[in-house]
UniProtKB/TrEMBL annotation, chain A:
Its biological purpose: Catalyzes the condensation of ATP and 5-phosphoribose 1-diphosphate to form N'-(5'-phosphoribosyl)-ATP (PR-ATP). Has a crucial role in the pathway because the rate of histidine biosynthesis seems to be controlled primarily by regulation of HisG enzymatic activity.
Pathway(s) per entry: Amino-acid biosynthesis; L-histidine biosynthesis; L-histidine from 5-phospho-alpha-D-ribose 1-diphosphate: step 1/9
Residues annotated as domain ATP phosphoribosyltransferase catalytic: 53-214
PANTHER family assigned: ATP PHOSPHORIBOSYLTRANSFERASE, ATP PHOSPHORIBOSYLTRANSFERASE ATP-PRTASE
Keywords associated with the record: Amino-acid biosynthesis, Glycosyltransferase, Histidine biosynthesis, Transferase
Source species: Albidovulum denitrificans
EC number: 2.4.2.17
Glycosyltransferase is among the record's keywords: yes
Name the UniProt record assigns to this protein: ATP phosphoribosyltransferase
Reactions this protein catalyses: 1-(5-phospho-beta-D-ribosyl)-ATP + diphosphate = 5-phospho-alpha-D-ribose 1-diphosphate + ATP
Cellular component GO terms, alphabetical: cytoplasm
Entries under Pfam families matching the protein: HisG
EC top class named in words: transferase
GO molecular-function term, one example from the UniProt record: ATP phosphoribosyltransferase activity
Automatic annotation (TrEMBL), chain B:
Pfam families: tRNA-synt_His (PF13393)
Gene3D superfamilies on file: Bira Bifunctional Protein, Domain 2 (3.30.930.10)
UniProt KW DNA-binding keyword: no
One Gene Ontology term, aspect cellular component: cytoplasm
Any GO MF annotation of the entry: histidine-tRNA ligase activity
Originating species: Albidovulum denitrificans
Lineage top rank: taxon: Bacteria
Domain Class II Histidinyl-tRNA synthetase (HisRS)-like catalytic core: from-to ranges: 11-200, 223-348
GO biological process: histidyl-tRNA aminoacylation
Name of the protein: ATP phosphoribosyltransferase regulatory subunit
List of residues binding L-histidine: D65, F66, T67, R92, Q106, E110, R301, Y306, Y307
Length: 233, 364
């Protein structure tokens, strides 16, 4: 059996069902609303596993599922050397969100990473601690800032309501997911011109660490139907 | 791959040699307060060190190196001059799937001595070279004091020099800044708009003030941006000279001749070049063949940012192996950790596990 992990609730689940449905594979939740079991119609050897979207990267890395659908932001943030742990099979065209760096709109002098770096240096001298950036995407944001040579900042963990941290004085800037920018504006924040860390969307992945001996033929059958080339795993 | 026991046996041999050179044995805790290390290295250290939590002492790190605890210990009241040696495991997270170890032995030797820093540089390097001689390694040297002196000598705004100095250890950012200060990179569109608005006295923002960064801090930076915009770019000639310096590689002897020539146009580097000349004499007196020893001007720019003078590494021919040994001068670190006091300091570490690996592979 090939185990396919998909998000267990919400728009991400519905859109994933639609995406597979459009390709002749009907996925559905078995039993009641509250039961996390799935049913598959239209594909042989495919087993549906419903999981929290945030756990899918870990399950893929461990090889406990063969394929999984989750946001590319989560895979890149949670997995070191992500492309050596999973193979990207197909972007699904929904769940678009940009991971961006935003600063208070009342900072007219900060509009680029270069400005952020300079402001961070001055901030550290004035306040005795590094400029704090609130985020839950630690790896992605740190790698991005390192690659761009930004110094004198520190990441502070924020698992929710990140846009509020600046006003609450627990951070000076944020790195978070946005789709329309509405929440950022409402919280008096603006996006840095070159502050796009990652453009995320829901993506279908294959696990390199999974045991493919009983699942390889199913993968080969699925590949043309779902529109990807079966990767070397 | 050497077993832990082999690495420990090699570490014991190296420790004995360091003690023979006059070093006192010191120990350091494995759990170090995260705050000091974060303050020193910045957020990057989180990607490289294991962070854990203590209910009373807060965030702690498994020691990523010995330098910080050893310097702290010395600055807390060590006698002068001092020579220390130590051995033990250090812990480094590996963010990439590879054979590199996340836990390995380091053996180190550190010299705190005001009398003759150049002689101390030579002492440490020559000691390492003699201990590693049977392995036929390639040694590379550099000198960050020459680079910082060159930046300090630029005929431009202090704020520009400070920005460049801050990013000596981030070559990519350094190059971007140099391009901008040298007028080779276009002013970003948003900066041009901001400067125009400042010039015409327009309101810059309607947004309410939020966050810790104050009005005054913003005003200070706006003034700095205007000053920067009104200043002439760093001359093409000066930029070219700096780039010539940064990219220089050659033997130490050739490098000294080249740098002595450069110092005629960059007089601020002359004292650092003189120190390099004295160091080469001291190395030669200890039997180091400086005519064939490699010098790379940018060596040490991508390591942890605390070296500020002489730097060196010993490398195996296999490029996949990490350096077997590395070290350098870190006078400024003693100021940072010394709470008002400071002392010239130089030292280095050897990885006995890799030494043992190489010895297994090659008869020596």
């Amino acid at each position: 059996m090939l185990k396919l992990g998909i998000p267990s609730k919400g728009r991400l689940m519905d859109k994933t069902f639609d995406w597979f449905g459009a390709r002749g594979i009907t996925l559905s939740r078995a039993g009641t609303e509250r039961e996390y079991a799935g049913a598959v119609d239209g594909a042989e050897g495919l087993d549906l596993v419903l999981l929290s979207a945030g756990e899918i990267p870990r399950e893929l890395a461990a090889g406990r599922i063969h394929m999984g659908v989750t946001g590319s932001d989560l895979v890149r943030d949670k997995l070191a050397d992500w492309d050596r742990q999973v193979a990207e099979l197909a972007p699904l065209g929904f769940g678009h969100a940009d991971l961006i760096i935003a600063v208070p709109a009342c900072w007219p002098d900060v509009d680029t990473l270069d400005d952020l770096d300079a402001a961070a240096a001055a901030f550290r001298r004035a306040h005795g601690h590094r400029l704090r950036i609130a985020t839950k995407y630690h790896r992605l944001v740190r790698d991005f800032l390192t690659a761009n040579g930004v110094a004198d900042y520190q990441l502070v963990d924020s698992q929710g309501a990140t846009e509020g941290t600046v006003k609450n004085l627990t951070a000076e800037a944020i790195a978070d997911i946005t789709s329309t920018g509405e929440t950022l504006r409402a919280n008096h924040l603006k996006i840095l011109a070159d502050g796009l860390v990652h453009q995320s969307q829901a993506t279908l992945y294959a696990a390199r660490a999974a045991d493919w001996s009983d699942a390889a033929t199913t993968l080969a059958d699925l590949a043309p139907r779902l529109g990807f080339t079966a990767p070397r795993l | 791959m050497a077993l832990k026991a082999d690495a420990r046996a090699e570490a014991d041999r190296l420790m004995a040699a360091f003690q023979g050179a006059g070093a006192a044995v010191v120990e350091a805790d494995i759990l170090q307060p995260a705050e000091v290390l974060l303050d020193l290295y910045g957020e990057d250290i989180r990607a490289r060190a294991y962070v854990t939590n203590d209910p009373i002492r807060g965030e702690m790190m498994l020691r990523p190196d010995f330098t910080v605890p050893v310097v702290q210990m010395h600055m807390d009241g060590g006698a002068e001059p001092a020579r220390y040696c130590y051995m033990g495991e250090v812990f480094r997270k590996q963010e990439h799937l590879s054979a590199r170890k996340s836990e390995y032995f380091q053996v180190g030797y550190e010299v705190f001595d005001r009398a003759d820093p150049v002689a101390a540089d030579a002492e440490v390097f020559a000691l390492f070279a003699s201990l590693l001689a049977p392995l036929n390694l390639r040694a590379v040297t550099g000198d960050l004091a020459i680079l910082t002196a060159a930046v300090r000598g630029l005929k431009t705004l202090e704020s520009r020099k400070a920005a460049l100095l801050r990013h000596i250890w981030r070559p990519r950012r350094f190059t971007q800044l140099l391009d901008r200060f040298g007028g080779r990179a276009a002013v970003p569109e948003s900066r041009a708009r901001l400067l125009a608005a400042l010039a015409s006295g327009d309101t810059l923002t309607q947004s309410p003030m939020i966050g810790l960064r104050s009005d005054a801090e913003i005003a200070t930076r706006l003034a700095a941006l205007q000053e920067d915009a009104e200043s002439a770019p760093i001359s093409a000639e000066e930029v070219a000279r700096l780039e010539d310096l940064l990219t220089y590689t050659g033997t130490c002897t050739a490098a000294l001749a080249h740098l002595t020539g450069l110092a005629r146009d960059m007089p601020t580097i002359a004292p650092a070049v003189d120190r390099m000349a004295a160091r080469l004499d001291a190395l030669a007196a200890r039997g180091i063949a400086v005519d064939t020893l490699d010098f790379e001007a940018s060596h040490g720019r991508t390591t942890l940012e605390y070296y500020d003078g002489f730097v060196f590494s010993f490398l195996a021919t296999d490029p996949d192996l990490p350096p077997l040994a590395s070290g350098g001068r870190y006078d400024a670190l003693t100021t940072v950790l010394g709470q008002g006091r400071s002392i010239p300091a130089v030292g280095g570490v050897i990885r006995p596990g890799i030494v043992a690996d190489l010895k297994e592979g090659a008869p020596c």
